């Protein structure tokens, strides 16, 4: 674990870690592998429209791994159960505090499990809803009303929740929105092109914000 701490300190001192992003593999039986075409499509969109040079294929990292510390942005999704061991929770906490960022997109049904497991990571932190004035909604693309609604489930409005360390946003949870579904190949959900575009633009805002803060 000392090695993990060292890696975290090292990466924090260098700012942006690499031009790669990762998908988080977690325990508990939930479908961490959901939306398989979403991240490649988001990467392609960002490289074409906002000038990033992200490797085309995202990497998969496990919650308790040292490899997490190689990536500035880690994405997590799923419908079902999430479980972090104590080692996973400690590793995630150190990753976030050393400069990393995790985005969790609710694929419908992950919220109760995520909130439970986040208490292991940060017992004293609470998810806070981001105001529509937060910079993450106003990067390259402007979303004056906050998150776009991509898919309807329960008639609830889309919400963005965050965890902060001092003034730095370190963790983003997008809820009742389904950004990842909007990033997927068109034939997967048959979403209208304007809906997919909004999802990709919001995803690009998140990537740009993470890479520059």
Structure in words:
The chain is 36% helix and 17% strand. The model is unreliable at 1-17 (pLDDT under 50). Strand 6 and strand 7 form a beta hairpin. The chain has one domain (2-212): 3-Layer(aba) Sandwich (Rossmann fold), CATH 3.40.50.12140. The protein is built from 7 helices and 7 strands; from the N terminus they run H-E-H-E-E-H-E-H-E-E-E-H-H-H. The protein is globular, with a radius of gyration of 16 Å. The chain is of the alpha/beta class. A 7-stranded mixed beta sheet has the order 2-1-3-4-7-6-5.
DSSP E strands, number:
7
Please compute the radius of gyration using only Cα atoms: 16 Å
Across the major sheet, the strand order is 2-1-3-4-7-6-5
Low-confidence stretches: 1-17
Ends distance: 26 Å
The assigned structural class equals: alpha/beta
Helicity level: 25-40%
- What fraction strand? 15-25%
How many distinct domains?
Answer: 1
CATH architecture grouping: 3-Layer(aba) Sandwich
Q: Give me the CATH fold name.
A: Rossmann fold
Discrete helix count: 7
Any idea what the CATH superfamily is called?
Domain of unknown function DUF4159
Task: Let me know the largest β-sheet.
Answer: 7 strands, mixed
How would the global form be characterised? globular
What integer is the average pLDDT? 89
